[in-house]
Design goal:
The complex is a heterodimer of chains A (about 230) and B (about 550). With about 230 residues, chain A is of the alpha+beta class. Chain A has seven helices and nine strands, in the order αααβαββαββααββββ. In chain A, the strands form three sheets. In chain A, strands 2-4-5-9-8 form a five-stranded mixed sheet. In chain A, α6 packs parallel to α7. The radius of gyration of chain A is 19 Å and the shape is globular. The termini of chain A are far apart. Chain B contains 27 helices and five strands. The longest helix of chain B is centred in the last third of the chain and has 27 residues. Chain B has about 550 residues and is mainly alpha-helical. Among the domains of chain B are: about 140 residues, Rossmann fold, CATH 3.40.50; about 80 residues, Tetratricopeptide repeat domain (Serine Threonine Protein Phosphatase 5, Tetratricopeptide repeat, Alpha Horseshoe); about 70 residues, no CATH class. In chain B, about 70% of the residues lie in helices and about 5% in strands. The chains are: A alpha+beta (about 230), B mainly alpha (about 550). Chains A and B meet through α2, β1, α4 and β6 of A and α2, α5 and α6 of B.
């Protein structure tokens, strides 16, 4: 039985084991970079720091593609749990600390203390990490992460003091939110992922969403995630 | 503002076990733990070493990679450790995994890890997760102990107390509380709790819980509706699929039940129990192809699992026999007895062997096996599972051993005289053998005999002759050790007697034995919980 199946390898099995392998390797790379940057001289460190950003991008892409694939095929175990915002922010900040420190970027954190909210921890952590990693690349020297409750919604913002989103990215952001199938651009995957994740979060007839703006506290780009 | 925490003191005295097949990961994790101030760290590379280590030592935290190459995976090790009691309630088990799967996140509550970390693992995440898990373990240890001891009222009281003071663990406490209410059979109360939670937020576990309450109350259509709603919103929510299948099956909609189970096995391809359930259901429906496939998968998946079950082997043997392949069926039966060295399994395998010979027309061997099984039944203590007894009765009828069939059918009926499903199955057996009149007569008479004894006991008790009633039902219980109604009446009378005359060792012995036996027959029976409450309320 199933002779045909044996002839064609099950690609999903390869995908899963390849992802497993890549994630192990990326984990070790990130860890190596983070713990060894301190031991480098200033010149070497300046050259090595962008490598950390690149490795994190590879990881983000991997995470995003896998999640999009699984959500699309209704296999993603969407895990809506009540999370402490303090813990969530602390974890995210500590994860990104090395890169920010060595890139000479100051991160402001602004949050409602003691707040808890329902969301899928891994997915939202993926969205915000990606936004921070992006902003690290495009900012001048300042970032802000704010998490506040506004009108019964959780609003997370990542703002910077760079030159803001170019107009084609702002348009792409609009297109994503309206559910238009847009052509791929350099930021396509990340935005698509963030928007998909936001929309999975629903409560009492309301659905989550993302938006891109220029301006904000520092006059740069603002990535905004709203969760009902 | 957030503050990075200093928790060296939290980690210093704790013992850790790291299970990972990848040397780079092992040393990375060990280095991290050392940075946190931990000194007591063991590392192993596979399931076998892990189990050996857990048999010898007690650990506060186990960090376990999910994918360990060939052999047991991380979930297998966790299940075996819990099943065999190698880890206590205080041990925190964290699974490290490359990807989040439905099994990991929505798996069976009793075999869930305390947390999972998605790769890549970094120091900050590891530290913050460990702190959180250890704090939660500490908060829940009393509650989990009470639940484990089946001290349900106390469990709920502790949850309420913790709910009043803790904000961050509200979900976890509500889940424990509501599932305890369901276990106690307090369905209306559980329903109220679920509805309160759902009024604020649409959460899949709460809606699934509402469905379970409806299921237990016999409202199958409503339960199905709720489970379908959960699945619509959350397609990978395993528990809702499991329960949807269950409620279809209970409503007799077997085709729908099978479809739900198939979806479940797609989402959770490594679950031994789900594959086995699918095999049994498909076999019941006569869908031999799906059943065969599911049983073969069950056997393959069971290789490294504590849930490995002889029922999959026996199911496969039956299907081979039905597909006119007796040689393979007999070979599988031989293998089964080798794999599982238990008297129970070899008895069951012998019953199936008789059926295989009978089906293939080998009447000499069929008759020989039939006589051997009849001897085993005679020497029996009456504690065999009724499903196996039913198969034995079927085999006796098929091999023309009417007397043995009748004896065993009578035992089944008398032990289960209120179980309509089982009685219908006995009737079915006889009508399939072309003896429906004899079957009906047998069921009617045997039921009547038990009802008469029970009625006499209840009347005696009402007349105040409690000792006499207890004696009567104790004798009946010895004859029919699996009859639930007799055990319930007997225990209630024992409690009544103790209420009147104070606690008494003999009475407690009766009650304990009945409780144990009912719980063995049906671990979820709500009567056990109610009786425990009544026992607690007895004056000291």
């Amino acid at each position: 039985m199933d002779k045909n199946k044996e002839a064609t390898p099950d690609i999903s099995a390869f995908l899963a084991s390849a992802v497993h392998d890549m994630k192990n390797s990326i984990g070790i790379l990130i860890n190596f970079l983070e713990s060894n940057l301190t031991e480098l001289g200033p010149d070497a460190r300046d050259k090595a720091t962008p490598m950390l950003y690149e490795v994190k991008r590879v990881n983000d892409n991997l995470v995003q593609m896998l999640a999009i694939y699984k959500i699309g095929n209704q296999f993603y175990p969407f895990d809506l749990t009540e999370n402490s915002i303090d813990d969530f922010v602390r974890e995210i900040v500590e994860q990104n600390k090395t890169l920010l420190d060595y890139s000479g970027i100051a991160l402001d954190v602004d949050l409602d203390e003691g707040l808890t909210w329902y969301f899928d921890y891994e997915l939202i952590s993926g969205v915000i990490s990606h936004a921070l990693n992006n902003a690290t690349h495009y900012t001048k020297d300042k970032l802000m992460l704010s998490v506040r409750e506004e009108n019964g919604e959780l609003v997370m913002r990542v703002e910077d003091n760079g030159s803001g989103y170019p107009s084609n990215v702002l348009e792409t952001g609009d297109a994503v939110n309206k559910g238009v199938n847009f052509a791929s651009g350099s930021t396509g995957l990340g935005l698509y992922f963030s928007s998909m994740v936001a929309k999975l979060h629903k409560n009492c007839g309301k659905t989550g969403g993302i938006s891109l703006e220029n301006g904000g506290k520092f006059g740069g780009s603002c990535f905004i995630l709203r969760l009902p | 503002m957030y503050t990075p925490s200093d928790s060296t003191s939290l980690f210093a005295g704790k013992s850790f076990l790291i299970i990972d097949d990848f040397p780079g990961m092992r040393s990375m994790l060990r280095e991290m733990l050392r940075t946190f101030g931990t000194k007591n760290i063991d590392t192993v590379t596979n399931g076998k070493e892990a189990i050996a280590c857990l048999e010898k030592n007690k650990y506060d935290v186990v960090l376990c990679d999910y994918n360990l190459g060939s052999g047991k995976n991380g979930q297998h090790i966790l299940e075996e450790a819990k099943f065999r009691g190698l880890i206590g309630l205080a041990t925190a088990w964290i699974i490290i995994t490359a990807e989040k799967t439905a099994d990991l996140v929505f798996g069976a509550a009793e075999y869930m890890p305390d947390d999972y970390i998605i790769k890549p693992v970094n120091e900050a995440t590891m530290k913050s997760r460990l702190e959180k898990v250890l704090a939660r373990k500490e908060m829940l240890v009393d509650i989990e102990k009470a639940a484990c001891d089946r001290n349900y009222n106390h469990t709920i009281a502790l949850c309420d107390k913790a709910l009043a003071s803790s904000k961050t663990s509200a979900t976890e406490l509500q889940r424990i509380k509501t599932s305890t209410l369901l276990t106690m059979g307090r369905y209306d109360r559980a329903q109220q709790e679920f509805e309160l939670i759902l009024a604020k937020r649409d959460i899949p576990w709460a809606k699934t819980g509402l469905g379970k309450a409806a299921f237990y109350k016999g409202e199958h259509a409503r339960a199905q509706q709720l489970f379908r709603e959960v699945i619509n919103e959350n397609p990978a929510y395993l528990e809702a699929h499991d329960w949807l299948a269950k409620s279809y099956e209970a409503a007799g909609e077997l085709e729908e039940a099978q479809r739900a189970l198939v979806r479940c096995t797609e989402l959770s391809p490594n679950s031994v129990i789900r594959q086995k359930n699918l095999g049994e259901l498909a076999h019941k429906r006569g869908d031999l192809e799906i059943a065969e496939n599911a049983f073969r998968k069950t056997i393959k998946l069971g290789q490294f699992s504590i849930h490995k079950t002889p029922l999959a082997y026996l199911g496969l043997a039956k299907i081979c026999s039905e597909n006119d392949n007796p040689a393979e069926a007999l070979q599988i039966l031989k293998d089964t007895c080798k794999e599982f060295e238990s008297a129970e399994t070899s008895f069951h395998a012998k019953v199936v062997e008789g059926m295989v010979y009978s089906k293939s027309g080998d009447l000499a061997n069929a008759g020989k096996i039939s006589r051997e099984v009849a001897e085993l039944v005679k020497a029996d203590d009456g504690h065999r599972a009724s499903s196996v007894m039913l198969e034995a009765a079927q085999m006796f009828l098929a091999t023309g051993n009417k007397e043995a069939a009748e004896d065993i059918a009578r035992t089944i009926i008398k032990n289960n005289h209120e179980n309509a499903e089982l009685l219908a199955q006995v009737n079915d057996l006889y009508s399939q053998a072309g003896m429906s009149d004899q079957g009906e007569e047998l069921v009617r008479k045997s039921r009547q005999e038990v009802i008469a004894i029970n009625d006499r006991g209840v009347i005696l008790a009402k007349e105040g002759k409690l000792d006499e009633a207890i004696r009567l039902l104790s004798d009946a219980h010895t004859m029919l050790p699996n009859n639930k109604r007799i055990m319930i009446n007997l225990s209630n009378m024992a409690v009544m007697s103790m209420r009147k005359n104070g606690r008494n060792g003999d009475m407690m012995l009766i009650v304990d034995e009945c409780l144990r036996q009912v719980a063995k027959l049906d671990p979820k029976d709500k009567w056990c919980a109610q009786l425990r409450v009544a026992l607690d309320a007895l004056p000291a």
